Amino acid sequence: MKNLYELVKLDPTLKDNRDDKRMRKKNEVYNLAKMKLDSWIKMTLISEDAEIEMKQAILDLVRSYGFISVWMYVFEDEPEILRQLVKCFPGTKEEYFDENGRVKDVIK
User: Fold this and answer.
1) Tens of pLDDT along the chain (108 residues)?
2) Is residue 26 within 8 Å of 8, Cβ to Cβ?
3) Neighbours of 43 (CB within 10 A)
4) How many CA atoms lie within 13 A of 81 on its CB side?
């Protein structure tokens, strides 16, 4: 996921930004996801109930805002959230992801 930031074109210095609104929205979602990552980490230290509520809040935001690749990038070190992100969207093929929610190397 090292180059995912560039892949999903969050870098405002890229010259080929035909849809500036979409890029701005991705940046907005990226910043929101970073804030929610900080909140998630804090909630995991407080209680299981707080963790469950925060997880649900994050999933609600993902469904609302979209840009799942941005959320996957921000939460790349949080397997519990990654697994839920995979389940969050109907039609996502879970067999393409490992037990930690990371993309499997399925192309041979």
Assistant:
1) 556 556 655 555 555 556 688 889 999 999 999 999 999 999 999 999 999 999 999 999 999 999 999 999 999 999 999 999 999 888 888 889 999 999 888 765
2) yes
3) 20
4) 31
Kindly state whether residue 9 falls inside one of the protein's structural domains: no
CA–CA gap between residue 98 and residue 105 (Å, rounded): 9
Whole-angstrom distance, CA of residue 103 vs CA of residue 25: 24
Q: Are 89 and 97 in contact (CB under 8 A)?
A: no
**Does 68 map to a domain?**
yes
Number of domains in the chain: 1
Query: What are the backbone angles phi and psi of residue 47, rounded to the nearest 5°?
Result: -165, 165
The answer to whether position 104 is within a domain reads: no
SS3 for the chain is CCCHHHHCCCCCCCCCCCCHHHHHHHHHHHHHHHHHHHHHHHHHHHCHHHHHHHHHHHHHHHHHHCCHHHHHHHCCCCHHHHHHHHHHCCCCCHHHECCCCCECCCCC
